[in-house]
Amino acid sequence: MILSTRQFHFSYPVWVEFGCGISRRVHEKAASLHRRRALVVSDAGVARAGLLEPIMASLEGAGLQATLFTGVESDPCGEICDRVAALAGEHAGDSFFVAVGGGSVMDTVKAAVVVAGHGGSALDYQRGGKKIEKSCPPYIAIPTTAGTGAEVSPYAVISDPSRKKKVVLEGPQLWPRFALLDPELTLGLPPRITAETGMDALTNVVEAYTSTGTDPFAQALALKGAAMIGRWLRKAVAQPHNLEARSNMLVASMFGGLCFDYAGLGAVHACSHPLGAHFGLSHGLATAVMLPAVMEFNLMACPELYRDLAAALGADVRGMDLMQAASAAPLAVRRLMEDIGLPRTLRELDIPEETLSLLAREAMQERANLCTNPRVPDEGQMLDIFYRAYYGPGGRK
Ligand SMILES: [Fe+2]
Fold it and tell me: Is 94 inside any structural domain?
């Protein structure tokens, strides 16, 4: 990045607050919204973990009429977002939402507030569709995983099952009014979910750091986020009740959401959407398995940046030449994936090899993500990236 040639801005409309136990004081933030109906949206796993009672008690104790919906499923489709929007009924002007969960819950609520404010159906408002221009009910985001950073971004990714596609909704109305980061809510999250969501956070910071749209603000957050994930993700997986590890992962994940909002993402996210849409891979797992392959493809476009990332991830790059040091970054990612027990290839995930061309073709259509990737692949190169992700380092034999 040549700073003298760039312009950048930052201003941020979300009040972000971090602290153990902070979610039990959600009513304090709700009071400033001046609305009486709280629509708390979550999923069955969060309900089973007992995380919702204190939040409901906080809202009801403050005299608010609180309604609970726990029917969000992973990989939310437009229809579930419409159902959540319908909770507001004709009282949208007196309602606010509280999203308690991971990326799927956040995305559902974001799309639901758009529908509650505009009418119609969530899929109508995907990029290129109807404009999101009216005011929408506000919402409070309370993440229960450390991964997407969706609690601080104005984007929602939902699926359109009829077209086997993931679509994006985007607009300032999708920002929460408050994001409450309470690491206690992530204690006890199973190791596999911790690992997958943590790799999404890592992908967000890696792509934002190396994006052609990056800036010093985003890079500072991204590099710090990478270092925190490199240091703490293993511990969060190994010790699900390690509050310090959970706290660091939650803040790193928020850094990821913030920095990709400013800087944009890259080819990993372009590849992850068709993998999710066709094979139902979680976003975290899809990004994890593509990340080292894309990094290896990108290396020579910005080796200095990958050298920074390698060092942030704990690799000792002293004495290495530039390309060696840059190559240490994807190696560090593969090592991390191995340590936290994630499959490292598409082959291990039973993705049929004959579908790689389709996946590559569809990834090439994800222009919004590809346009900020530091090296723009053509379709043949994109297919090579998928083969590398399929077979591991070395790619197609
Ligand atoms: Fe992501």
Answer: yes
